[in-house]
Write a structure and sequence with these properties.
Elements lengths: L1 E3 L4 E3 L4 E13 L4 E12 L3 E7 L4 E9 L7 E9 L4 E10 L2 E12 L6 E8 L5 E8 L20 E8 L4 E4 L3 E9 L2 E8 L12 E4 L2 E6 L5 E6 L8 H18 L7 E7 L6 E2 L4 E5 L12 H17 L6 E3 L5 H19 L5 H4 L1 H12 L24 H17 L1 H15 L2 E3 L1 H12 L3 H9 L5 E11 L2 E10 L15 E7 L2 E8 L3 E7 L7 E3 L8 E3 L2 H12 L5 H16 L5 H8 L8 H21 L2 H22 L11 H17 L3 H16 L10 H14 L2 H11 L5 H8 L8 H11 L9 H11 L1 H13 L1 H8 L4 H12 L5 H13 L6 H21 L7 H6 L2
Parallel strand pairs: 3-12, 18-19, 19-21, 22-23, 24-30
Antiparallel strand pairs: 1-2, 3-4, 4-9, 5-8, 6-7, 6-9, 7-8, 10-11, 11-16, 12-15, 13-16, 14-15, 17-18, 20-21, 24-25, 25-28, 26-27, 26-29
């Protein structure tokens, strides 16, 4: 390995670099291995007798090199040095390889693993219930090397030609269309050898292969691109929603990016075992089944929205990431942040009724701010030295904060300059690699604004600002504000250093729509026209900037009146509440004051605002469940019960959809069901829940429409929690009849809510028994930890006692799986004692790839413990406070 001295990056030597890979692969789905041959055209830049590539879990049979010079003979490989820890192989040749072009020819054998990484196998049941095997790939970030020896770095682009040898009964496809097919004899069997067209120049992590049994639906875009959605046999109807979304989306992106989709086809495939939500392989996008397939007759609005944004996200990558690729992993955010912004942009054009930009603050932005308020966060542009470190930054900073910063840039630049600069960037850098400053330069040219000066403080430093109003005065029709920015930390402690941001401040008042004030220093004075002495001033109008706002008591009172009077848009109402909650957790606003502010939302009818309300109500419930005195916890639950009951009465969602319902009305029904299930599962509501549960149990697939997807999980959870072993066994009996992963997931998210300790223990044992797929088992564990205080303690105890088993299940899979288990096992534990216990456990059982997740979890536990201590010193600890809220 060599180091890029300028950036401290550990890279392969660049004396020999790839131009083209010809890959021949013959997978055996019975023995779970594959025979392979890689013929790699290379350019030898410096005379050398060694060639180093990335390789993992590959066994080499023969290696040779032949120069392209006329008359050149093969150069013998006399040594193969594999470094397992570095996942590299160095081929040592008998002669110095001449400068110029040549070919490496490598024959080898690989493993079809079951870890959802590299070239791997999945199991599924066909329409007759028979278990079958298929093969597919997942190469991002560093697993192409599990399939073929390569320069597995995003900046080392090359052309790829793939040939597969497969059972004639199976369908096989890759990034490009098939170019030829012929029957060949392999031993005693006849197999089909399929060659695919050459790909464009692209990075190794985007190469993809899928082999199995499929049905499909297809359509063409306006530009003639053939789009197919591949489904399990017999389920092609379930691919139509994604197909419709994809064809419209490609047309939108053709226009938006100013370059047509560059490949002749786009395949989207449902994979039965998949670690992520989806993967943007160029021309062959792979998905979890639940993120691609929909039964449009029974699917909830939430499920449709999820499939829509996953599709629009992955298709944005076909340009931003695939056509133009980051040069190295420290600019991962360029891929993920931009695609996370684009998913909303395209989905909003296709389905405006989803109101995704209204949902953005309580969804994408909320995820970003929650993580980025920790001292254990990281910058958007995080320095990556060893490529393995990138696994730690596939998180809410790269995706959600990245999207939020892009949204801020869009607001500051305006749509036309934003789009014009983006199109210039795409045109200039297509089929090559870039760094963040290339995008800043393009936007600077299109807008004549100093974009780097504005944006670098957001991408190069960790955290985000809190903007505090230090003084607020009203004189006639003018309000004067003095504001100050500083680094916001969830713990409320003083930041270790002073930081400022180039901060766009959008200010709205009762007399003026949002106006932009650029803040470059620590303080700023603002004057705003208002229409009367009691009217409001709103900072961060439209919630277009990732920051928190702390108002004076007078301003907060005025805004509370504006909330009650319906004078603020939904996203701003939601943001005010999320800010107040964050302020209270940080000790910058009394928890009692925050709850008083929350009561101003009583009777709210909009889904977007209820989404924020649910995060506060459920977040506090989780906190109090994990560490507050029982009496306070019970008083809080009683308050939530009353609050949610009033919300149910005001919104009047009912149990069934109405013809007049809009899209978000369905989302609101599902969300209120979730809150009633958690805080008020009794009376007529519980009676109806039991009736629907019983009908579902009779025939889980035949009666599914009677218990809609949008509130199936809340009904399961409520009935289980109010029942006992009988209901648990009924639900497990239904699970055994289910064939679709989305239906199985409803059971996984609910089954831990059974109240008996013995049954919870059985549930946890089932989760790690091997019966449940690796992609799903942590959902079961999370349902136990979320069910009750006892469940939370049981989950952590089980994680400790079964650590070796759990680690063995996922040790070579995507680190995201173990991260999810860690979060399920520790989130909600809210004491310094527990934090110390967890810290000591991971010192004895280190998980280097999950180190950042562990440190962030510990910080959250300690922050929540401090918050609980502060909350107990306020009026919350007194019964009179809770009585005053009724």
């Amino acid at each position: 390995m060599s180091a890029d001295k300028a950036a401290g990056r550990v890279l392969l030597p660049d004396a020999v670099l790839p131009i083209r890979y010809d890959l021949w692969l013959a997978p055996d789905l019975e023995r779970f291995v594959f025979d392979a041959k890689a013929t790699i055209e290379v350019d030898v830049h410096e005379a050398t007798n060694e060639v180093s590539l990335h390789s993992k879990e590959l066994q080499f049979k023969t290696v040779s090199f032949k120069s392209s010079e006329d008359g050149a003979s093969d150069v013998e490989c006399i040594g193969i040095n594999q470094k397992i820890k570095e996942t590299t192989v160095t081929f040592v040749f008998s002669e110095v390889l001449p400068v110029g072009k040549g070919k490496l020819v490598i024959e080898y054998v690989g493993i079809l693993n079951n870890q959802m990484a590299g070239f791997y196998r999945s199991s599924y049941k066909d329409i007759h219930g028979v278990t079958k095997m298929m093969a597919s790939t997942q190469f991002e970030s560093l697993d192409a090397r599990r399939c073929f020896p390569c320069w597995d770095e995003p900046g080392r682009k090359a052309v790829f030609a793939v040939t597969l040898v497969v059972d004639p009964a199976l369908t096989a496809f890759s990034n490009m269309p098939e170019s030829s097919s012929r029957m060949v004899q392999v031993g005693s069997k006849y197999m089909r050898e399929i060659a695919f067209m050459d790909s464009p120049k692209m990075s190794t992590y985007l190469v993809a292969i899928v082999i199995g049994e499929f049905d499909f639906v297809q359509a063409k875009t306006q530009n003639g691109v053939l789009v197919r959605v591949y489904t399990p046999p017999g389920r092609s109807e379930a691919g139509k929603f994604a197909l419709n979304t994809a064809t419209q989306c490609l047309d939108i992106y053709d226009d938006f990016f100013g370059l047509p989709y560059p490949l002749p086809k786009l395949d989207m495939v449902a994979i039965p075992e998949f670690a992520m939500g989806a993967m943007e392989n160029w021309g062959l996008v792979t998905y979890r089944e639940v993120d691609l397939l929909i039964d449009e007759k029974t699917a909830s609005g939430q499920q449709k929205q999820r499939v829509c944004i996953v599709v629009t996200h992955e298709l944005a990558h076909q340009w931003f990431g695939n056509l133009v690729t980051m040069n190295w992993w420290d600019d991962l955010w360029l891929n993920e942040g931009f695609a996370s912004w684009c998913e909303n942009y395209a989905a909003d054009l296709i389905f405006p009724s989803y109101k995704l930009w209204d949902q953005f603050p309580a969804d994408t932005l909320a995820h970003a701010l929650r993580l980025d308020s920790l001292k254990t966060s990281h910058p958007i542009q995080v320095p990556i030295k060893h490529a393995e470190e990138v696994e730690e930054v596939f998180d809410a900073i790269s995706y959600c904060k990245g999207a939020s910063v892009i949204r801020m840039a869009h607001a500051v630049l305006g749509h036309e300059d934003f789009r014009k600069g983006l199109q210039a960037y795409m045109k200039k850098h297509q089929y090559s690699n870039t760094e963040t400053f290339d995008l800043w330069n393009a936007w600077s040219e299109s807008s004549n604004k100093a974009v780097k000066d504005i944006m670098s403080s957001w991408t190069e430093q960790m955290g985000f600002p809190i903007l505090e109003v230090k003084s607020f005065t009203v004189s006639g029709s003018v309000a004067k504000l003095s504001v100050q920015q500083s680094w916001f930390l969830a713990s409320g402690e003083e930041p270790p250093e002073e930081r400022t941001w180039s901060l766009p401040v959008f200010v709205k008042s009762s007399a003026e729509e949002g106006r932009l004030h650029m803040m470059t220093g620590k303080t700023m004075d603002i004057e705003v026209p208002i229409s009367g002495g009691s009217d409001f001033v709103l900072i961060n109008e439209g919630v277009r900037v990732p920051m928190r706002v702390a108002y004076t008591a007078d301003m907060r009172s005025r805004l509370s009146d504006a909330v009650r009077g319906g004078k603020l848009p939904t996203c701003d109402r939601a943001s005010l509440l999320m800010d107040a909650y964050a302020m209270a957790k940080a000790g910058k606003l009394g928890t009692d004051d925050m709850i008083q502010f929350l009561t101003g939302y009583c009777g709210e009818r909009e889904y977007v605002v209820w989404d924020a309300l649910s995060q506060v109500l459920l977040g506090l419930a989780r906190l109090f469940m994990g560490g507050a005195p029982q009496q306070l916890y019970e008083r809080y639950l009683a308050f939530c019960k009353s609050f949610v009951a009033k919300g149910w009465e005001a919104a009047n969602p009912g149990w069934t959809a109405r013809p007049t319902d809009g899209f978000t009305d369905g989302l609101l029904r599902g969300l209120l069901m979730k809150l009633v299930s958690r805080f008020a599962p009794e009376g007529d509501w519980l009676k109806e829940a039991r009736r629907l549960f019983d009908r579902y149990i009779e025939d889980p697939e035949g009666n599914a429409a009677e218990l809609p997807d949008e509130y199936r999980v809340p009904v399961f959870q409520a009935v289980l929690q109010a029942g006992g072993p009988k209901e648990h066994e009924q639900l497990m009996g239904a699970y055994r009849k289910l064939t679709k992963n989305i239906d199985q997931k409803h059971v996984f998210l609910s089954v831990g809510y059974t109240p008996e300790e013995k049954t919870k223990t059985e549930v946890l044992k089932w989760a790690i028994s091997g019966e449940v797929k690796i992609q799903d088992f942590f959902y079961i564990m999370g349902s136990v930890s979320a069910s009750s205080r006892e469940g939370l303690d049981m989950m952590w105890s089980t994680f400790k006692s079964e650590f070796d088993t759990i680690h063995g299940m996922v040790k070579t899979a995507s680190p995201s799986i173990m991260d999810a288990v860690i979060k399920s096992s520790t989130s909600g534990l809210n004491s310094e004692e527990k934090a110390t216990e967890i810290e000591e456990f991971f010192k004895k059982h280190p998980l280097p790839q999950s180190a950042r997740t562990i440190s962030q979890g510990l910080e959250e536990i300690r922050t929540n413990a401090k918050f609980l201590s502060r909350a107990l010193s306020t009026a919350l600890a007194k019964e009179d406070f809770w009585k005053s809220l009724k």
